Each structure stands twice: as structure tokens, then as C-alpha cells.
């Protein structure tokens, strides 16, 4: 008799993306500094509680847990210090930088050797209809508190590991400072000289080898959407139908609610399932 293989994919469940309540910020992690999320997604702390409950309640029924980690350096194409204007000032958070801005000299790389790359990069983003290049608050810097998985989710994963006597699997993304990396499968602009920015089949393979895959994480409008779109692009319809977005455990970046809603509607049309954790019955 075939055992049903159930997998859980958690996208970027890291402190910098969670609106951790102030009373929790000092107590959650044994760190010399308080947790101060740099890019908190509204309602994400509630999302984390619901996902942790789902993992704890379904411990016996989950066979695999895969976690992607947004992993950046201070110097990163989507962080302010990568760019400057003619006065040497860095862009403010949420500044959009277009191809024309670079051509006009409005924004230039702090390292002029990157100029040709960035002209090609921004042109490619605009021609392929990808996210515009945006300067985010510096976030998920490797080895920082903000890079760490939030405690409710990490504790639930730890409990699952003890129960199942297996370990979860982690996929790191975003370490190359010269390209953005929203999705867990490939960078926005894959680089020919860095295999880690090129398409990685791990997540598509996870779906093929599973009977059902539940997906959670942050943020619905960006890294969750991008990861799922990259996956469905490589999957057959029967495999796409295995995917379920746990919609009560993921939220959009503030100001990007419409993009998130449009993404959900596209996925429903393709055959992806949308469910609340309370509606999922596993046996």
C-alpha cells in the first residue's frame, strides 16, 4: 500500500520579515541586542503562530520539511550602500531604480565596475516583466538575528525532528550581491558565472516526489509568490495540483496587497489549492 508523502515548504520564515510584538522582541532569542525586524510584514506574527500549530498538530503526517532562507550581505544590489547619486548619497528604502535612472545618472553603482552589468540587469527585468529593482531596508544579513528562523516556527520544526527522527532541509538564496533572489528556485537575473543563481531543481523535484506539498512563509507578495511561480513553471498539471498554499500563514508586504491577490488568482486558475490550516484534514 502506497504511503502518502506529505511535504511542507516554508519560505523565508526569518525574523526580519515578522512583526514580532515588542514584548517578545527582548525575550525570544538569547542575543545581546533586541530583535528589531527590518522589513516586518503586517500580520506575520499571527501567521507564524498558526503555522507552528499546524506543524505541531500534524507532526505524524508530515514527511519532509524544507525551509528557504533569504541570505544577504550588507553590500547587496537591493540594499542602499550598493548605490549612490551624484552627491554620493545612498537611496532611501523602497526607492525604485529603473534602467533609465541609471542611463540618466540619477543612480549609479558605488562600484563603477558594475555599471554595464546593471544596465543589462535592469533592462532584462523590465523586458521580462519581473519585479522592478527596489531598494529594501537592509535585511536577512547572514549571521544576524534577522537572518534567524522565528522561534515559534523553529520550535515546531525542532519538535517535529525529535518526533520523526529526521532533519529538515534548508535552501539558502540571495548570497550573490549582484542579483536579486526572491524565488527559491533561481535569481531574478541568473548569472552565468554563479551556479547558485541559476535554476535549482530541488523544489520541483520535491513536488514530483511528494503526494502533496503545503506552502507557507513570507511574504506572499514577493518570495512566496516568486518561489511558487518558479515551481509551477517547471511542473506538469498533475504535480501543480499537489500544491496547497496555507493562506492563513502568509501575508503580503504592506502596499503590495493587490499583487498578492492577483498572484493567488493566477495560481487558482492553474490548479494550485488555497486553504486555511484549520481546513486541512490529514491522516
TrEMBL record:
Q: SUPFAM superfamilies of this UniProt entry?
A: Isochorismatase-like hydrolases (SSF52499)
Which keywords does this Swiss-Prot/TrEMBL entry list?
Hydrolase
GO molecular function annotation: hydrolase activity
Question: Which InterPro entries does this chain map to?
Answer: Isochorismatase-like_sf, Isochorismatase_Nicotinamidase
Q: Which family does it belong to?
A: Belongs to the isochorismatase family.
Q: What is this protein called?
A: Nicotinamidase
Annotated source species: Photobacterium phosphoreum
